Amino acid sequence: xGLSFVLGGGGAIxxxxxxxxxxxxxxxxxxxxxxxxxAGALNSAxxxxxxxxxxxxALTEFWQAEASHAVLxxxxxxxxxxxxxxxxxxxxxxxxxxxxxxxxxxxDAHDLRELAVPLSVTTTCLDCSAAVHHTEGPLIDVLLASCxxxxxxSPVRLGxxxxxxxxxxxxxxxxxxxxxxxxxxxxxxVLDAGLAPVTGSPGTCAAEKAPWMACGLxxxxxxxxxxxxxxxxxxxxxxxxxxxxxxxxxxxxxxVQHAIRDPRVRVLPHVADAWSAGYLTSMPTxxxxxxxxTDLVNAxxxxxxxxxxxxxxxxxxxxPQQARRSD
Length: 327
Hints:
By secondary structure, the protein is an alpha/beta fold. It is built from eleven helices and ten strands. Strand 8 (about 215) and strand 9 form a beta hairpin.
């Protein structure tokens, strides 16, 4: 039996995902294949270069570093400096060069095929209006394309001659791509990093209005989970980001609705579940809020450890859960 990991996009929630990866690695669970999108693609490439506990721990440190925050969540000054580019070129607000430079410092591989673990990175092709799952090609270019949130970062023209943007536009959690490459006896572990998770099943996930259950974790609060909404001081930027969040949610739910019912799929606790189970005391205000990355890393570690202890690896993704609130 082989393991495949699917790492969805979610901006700053990639820190939660990194914590989950560290716990999985410490439990001796390493992937034979990876599929990632956006922030999940960055995590997949970093971990896939060397799937070890040490590498996973370094990934959590990367998410907590101030230098990483400065690149992944640019300051207002950086955005102001980007306005001329937006006005003259019209395709992005932010300069992609800092992100490209950071990826070059952390990743030695030049092509996707050079990673120790086979990796599929999902982008959205603007010319053909479809998700594309890349298993070869220039690593940094493909990662930049997978992270190119429309309006913030420029589309990337890849080797197929087409312009590509964030895979989350249509397929932010590429479960089906992983299933297509998996064998009949393999397991596919899904780490959805969305503040509004799209892989939860009604009755099993806190984000799906299950009052006493959260992916099998005991609930530690009566609070009903409501995904934080994207906010910005710029009304224009806020409208763009919130509109993208709505469109992404609809498209991504459609993309995974059949795949997550596959008996090979195991959905790990979402950040919503970690919050409802008491592993996270406060939520980020949005996917670009990097002020809580340490809390997110710790919550990802704790929720994943509890899931493993509860037998999550052997339970069907859509199986009824038995967890109840302790009165």
